[in-house]
Write a structure and sequence with these properties.
The protein contains three helices and four strands. The protein is α+β, with helices and mostly antiparallel strands. The chain has one domain: 2-Layer Sandwich (Alpha-Beta Plaits). The strands form two sheets. Strands 1-4 form a two-stranded antiparallel sheet. The structure holds iron/sulfur cluster (2 copies). One iron/sulfur cluster binds next to helix 1.
Length: 78
């Protein structure tokens, strides 16, 4: 299996207000709503486009891979 579970969009359910904007915008249908909160219902469909992260009005979505890419530029120093 691909080891990219930690790279999936993380949705903070304590912050999410269930507006549904990320679900409507997600081009691949990876997101869905469960119990009034956004959820990554089909992780394999996610292309890390970051549209959901950009649209969320309360910044409940975080794409960890963006941090990884930034940090990788420092690894060449070692
Ligand atoms: S990063 Fe893009 S494809 Fe993945 S869940 Fe968000 S909007 Fe959908
Ligand atoms: S856009 Fe943000 S607040 Fe709205 S459903 Fe998605 S994660 Fe929740």
């Amino acid at each position: 299996m691909m080891d990219h579970a930690n790279w999936m969009p993380r949705i903070a359910h304590s912050i999410c207000i269930g507006c549904g904007e990320c679900i409507a915008l997600c081009p691949t249908g990876a997101l869905g709503q469960r119990e009034g909160k956004a959820n990554l219902i089909a992780p394999s469909l996610c292309t890390y486009c970051a549209a959901c992260e950009s649209v969320c009005p309360v910044n409940a979505i975080e794409l960890p891979y963006l941090v990884v890419l930034v940090n990788s530029s420092h690894r060449e120093e070692s």
